[in-house]
Amino acid sequence: MNPPQMPFHSKKTLEHWVAEFVDSRGAGDLIRVAVQDGSGGDDTGLVIVPLENAPNSVWIEPRDTGDELNWLITIEPTDEALELTSFELNALTHELQVAAELCAFLQEKSLGHFEPEAQAGNESTTPGHSAADER
To answer: For a Cys-Cys bond, which of 8, 49, 55, 60 suits 99, CB 3.0-4.6 Å?
Structure first.
């Protein structure tokens, strides 16, 4: 018996979800999905949230945390202290709030979403699911 696999989300699906979030939220125009090779060479994505008010790299990705899948935000540390004016801190707070909202959005979109064609190891579409559904 094989252990349960973490649900697969293709780069294309993540790009669609990010675009949906940006359109509905009116923020996050610089958010992008980078190529990331998943286990078995699957075409997965890593959601990058650039910060304009801090030098840190921020990304969002799903992680299998035991019994369930959770989306987590990673903020890379820097070697330097960050000094900000109140206005810059307020702007950074807004950027981090957008990242948090996107993380929650991706968590919600992932519930019950499976891409069985990825588990089968091919790019064909499943019955009732077409490439047009991803746009």
So the answer is: 49
In 18-125, the DSSP E strands lie at 32-37, 43-48, 58-64, 69-75
44 CB contacts (<8 Å, ≥6 apart)? 8, 9, 10, 11, 14, 36, 37, 38
For residue 10, what is the DSSP state? B
- Candidates 62, 49, 39; CA nearest to 99 is 49
Q: What is the pLDDT along the chain (135 residues), one digit of tens a residue?
A: 444 445 567 888 899 999 999 999 888 889 999 987 665 555 567 899 999 999 998 999 888 766 677 899 999 999 999 999 999 999 999 999 999 999 999 999 988 777 655 443 444 333 333 333 433
Radius of gyration of the chain (CA): 17
